[in-house]
Amino acid sequence: MTLGTLPAKPLNSRFNDSQWEAIHQRGSNILVSASAGSGKTTVLIERIINHLLTHYANMDQLLVSTFTEAAASEMKARMENRLKQAVNQTADRAEQAHLVSQLQLLPASHIRTLHSFCLQVIQQYFYIIDFDPSFRLLTDETQKSLLYQEVWQELMIDLAQDPDWQEKLFHLLAQFSPGPSDQGLYQLILDLYQFASSHPEPQVWLSQLADQALHFEDFAKTGLYQAVLLPEWQASLSHAHHLLEQALAGLESLTDAMISKIQPLLEAERSQVQDLQSVLSGQDLAQVFALFQQVSFDRWPSGKKAEEDKELLEQVKALRDQAKEQIERVRQLMVLDYDTTVYVEGQAGASIQDLAHLTLEFRQALWQAKVAQNCIDYNDLEHLTLDILAPYDADLGQRQPSEAALYYQELFREVLVDEYQDINDIQATILSFLSHERRQDLSGNLFMVGDVKQSIYGFRMAEPSLFLAKYQAYQEGNGGHLIVLDANYRSRDEILQFTNFVFQRLMDPGFGEMQYGAMESLKTGNHSFLPAAPDPKFDIEFLLYESSAADEGEPEDQDLDLNQGVETSLEAEAWLIGRDIQARVQAGWQIYDKELGQQRPVTYQDFVILSSTRHPFQPVKQVFEQLGIPLLSQNVENYFQRQEIRLMLALLKLIDNPHQDIPLVAILRSHFVGLSDEQLSQIRIRVPNSGSFYEACQQVLLLEEASLIALQESLTTFMDKLKEWRQLAQRVDLVTLIWTLYQETYFLDYVAGLDQGDQRQANLHAFYERVVEFEAGNYKGLTAFVGFIEQIMAHDQDLAEPLLLSEDQNFVRVMTVHASKGLEFPFVYLMQTGKRFNIQDTQKVYVPSKRYGLGLDYLDIKHQLQYPSFIKEAIKLERRGQLKSEEMRKLYVALTRCEQKLVIVGSVKSQDQVQTKQEQVLAATGQELVMNRALRQGAGSWLDWLLMATAFSGRHLQSTTDFTNDQVRLTYVAEAELLPLLKASASRPWLQDDQNWLADLKLTVDQHEVTSEVGAFIQSLLESHYDYGLASKTSSYQSVSELKRLYEEPHNEKLSHFTDRRPGQISWDWLSQEDEERAEEAQIGQKAGIQSIRFTGDTFQAPRFVRERQAYTAAQIGTFTHYVMQQLDFSALEGLDVSDYPAAIQEQAQAWLAAGFMEASQWEAVKLASICQFLASDLGQVLIKQAKSLHREQAFSYRLPAAKLFARQLGADQLQELAGSQLLVHGVVDNYLNLPDGRLILIDYKTDRYRPWASLTKSAQIDQIVDKYRFQMSLYARALSLAKGKQVTDVYLVLLDFDQVVPVTDLYDFD
Predict the structure, then answer these.
(1) In angstroms, rounded to a whole number, what is the distance separating the alpha carbons of residues 1083 and 1086?
(2) What letter does residue 798 receive in the DSSP assignment?
(3) pLDDT for 832-867, tens place per residue?
(4) Of the four, 551, 959, 963, 1292, which is 20 to 30 A from 847 by CA?
């Protein structure tokens, strides 16, 4: 590899050093790793211009491969402008002539997609492979799908009659299509066909498909074991060994008695891990199986533990449990013993062989069908081109370059490839034969540009490992030269540093397929933004909807489950975004305009909503229509659901066959005829015994009744036209028929006058063009077209509406992340971030892999048994890693689309749960920069990753960014706040009240003039007013726990007097019982509102052996602690030293355990240290000394004015309605002291958790809790005063987790 000498860069050059090198470096294969926004397209164009200006190459001597036709067109346009500038800038006549000649060569130059170039190669060298050059390119995915199904059906018929295939086919159908349909087997064959087609040698790939299974004894030598399983297992065992070492080190602080119990157990388990690590270093898989299946874990020692040992023991046990989990992750792959596994894989291998042969049969049949129809698809383009450039030599087992390849290698001075990270194996092979990559006698001339972090086309068989392999090799100087473009000129510094902040924690070679270090980090290249960064206005924002009906995620992905992104929360997220956009536009929120060079108010066109899928588009569209926000949505695939298209389809169906009731009634009721519902009813009433509705129409025309004259006239006109159109359909092509229908019905003019008329007309024109495409193919005629459309709709293969784009449209745009790639937007909302990753591909009975073939469970048809395949589990591991790595890269693309302001929108179960998970991440990651791998792999959504990364505060020593989570703002929106909007929305009918009929009736009456007595009576009923409506919606018997929610800060809508609490009327916010004081009710499954029975549940308590093994939640631990405080005999502690309290309480606890009031595991979960800390406090000492004056569990009930209770929630007019109304309040006072000196002290224990990692300080958290309970304590104090006939002198909250006793002042006054 001999690199050229770079020309000196001028001082005033607009290019940085890396860009300059990428433009001018020659003499080798070059890979440019260009991060988002680094100007790679500009660099590519400047490199081409430099080749022309230096006479290194002419325009026709360069092959420039782009990813899309649009990119090729844009590049040609920019090249034309640059060449014209160069012509004007030189005075040299010869140079001008040279540049003009390059301009003339530009239109026919080789700046095109690789598929477009392949098309040219085939048309030029078709004779090498004896192929008809007049073929048609099959670009329509729907037509291609239908062709595949047609070929499959014919193949099944042929093979069913072939004696050699009958038995094999029966077994394959029984295994993969057990029902009446063969779709299961078809989908498997189609998957294998597509995987094989992405390989340069499909037949070789298929012929080797079963090798691993049939020769399982050699599996330890395969790449699947060496590259996937072994590193994974070694990492797990290494982590387990590290955890056990930590656990052993933690024993040093325990008492000798406890060390003697625990140390032998941990040392034995560490020894087991070392043995497993040793056996893995060999190649004997049988020994690996045997040793892993012999692994055992002794029971953790139980019995009385010293208080000083307890907390440390919990930490040691947690480390040991994590180590066990790591070993179990490996062992669960070895369900069967080694010999059984060999047998199972052998049986599965036989089925894989049959599947490979069937795929070859399908491939051959499909090719024959394509030849017969003289059409090929994009995949065929690639394979035919490769066959032309380098025919396969069966004797040598490899391809040899042909005369065509040698011609192109001589022709092209350089082959430039854009978006190299998204090519597949066969495309890389084609490029290698077009360039000098395979020529040892010539210097490299392959110039590749891309960013592997933006490789998001795995579903198109893109292979980012090709880029990564070159990246690593060129970095070491092997085979080429690496240039890194890391300066981003698109975005503000906040966006770039947040991206670095997230991905340095998230991505590494083990999970993410590459390191995210200093070379890969984004550098800020544009410092012109105003205001200058960092600015709090441009902090990263999270809008999080707290949804009680959140998704639970994939079964195997519940290790870290933040429960976001369910279908019902999409609309809520749309409301959050819509309201935020409205507020910013109305407030004139300022962004920087790059063209103006100054700030300006934001407009709708500055906003873009990105989503991982198209699924949210429809909810967003409906919500924005209600808000009056203009929206342009890309690729909402509901084209065939549009009214104008449905009517045209119905009309065509009638012309094809008029004896179809639903299409006929649709047309009669529509613009085409205009009959009313009454007239349609008359047709059936007058002719009740006719067959089809068409026959009824014909018979009605024969009736002689004056009342039917108008109906008959309309029917006669239409029936005559229908007959005329049916005759026309027999004589002309479908295109002419459609256009005739448009003209004779004036349908295009009619829809133009409707709402969204331009879009409707565009849809009808697209329908016409669709017909043109259809008839250009192998299908002809009306009947075939109607059948074609029905199959599309049956297979859910709807089409996208055509986009109407015009300049300066002030619309909010919504698009997928894939559609946004290469674009940039000032203000981005990233929504549906809580959507669970789609890993369904790994849940099937089979899992294919491009690299490692097919993993298949063995299905014993005779005994109806399924045996898990070890190979399948290994491939599943590889596939899941690939899918999640691509999701990671998709998230990178999404974040880097934003120029200035980023808002991340998602749904979570609760704020409390998010904080708990973030604490787990912090504890598991420790001092490392990259987060714990198990938690990263266990995450189920983008939001999981983002919230995990933002859990870390401060700057890590190894970090490449100064960004901290102080620049991240999290806003939680309660479900109750959005529920009224969701109920009112038509897109979620199941959320609406059961009495919608009343609202619908009122709307109908309001929209029509009332002329009848019945109508007037209905109107009078609707306008009637009940004086006590508010009282009828409020329970007259309220518990303190429920009432306190009215006074929580921030205001909690979980209790609303506007909520109808009758059975069947309870909304989801009533079912959300997250509060710790309701933990006991939640445990027993109580799912009712205020009217519920307090002390019964609808589930049985779990068996003891289950409860003993479970990890208790914070709420459950709080309940246990509260119980201990209520049972504790304070008098037994009098006279003891504070250091003796733990032993005395332990003694009391033994009595509770013996009586069955508590279980050992529950007692172990209690934080005894916190209880002792309270007892040592001033209030605790008063309780001990005045134990005889302590009273517990004092039940009460009394009446309060309703207007006083609801003063915060109601307006003056509504409060007036409640004047004189009383509510009966009931509850239980936990503890109070009625002291001899006359003091009456109210005490309440609270187990709210202290969160050291939260954004609030400890004192701020305490203030928040006091505000939360002030109303409850006010009610208790009033109850106690009424019961004892004297005022409560002091009120205290005992915050056990905070180790604080806090007085409560400023109580509410209810008098």
Answers:
(1) 8
(2) P
(3) 999 998 877 777 778 888 888 899 999 888 888 889
(4) 551
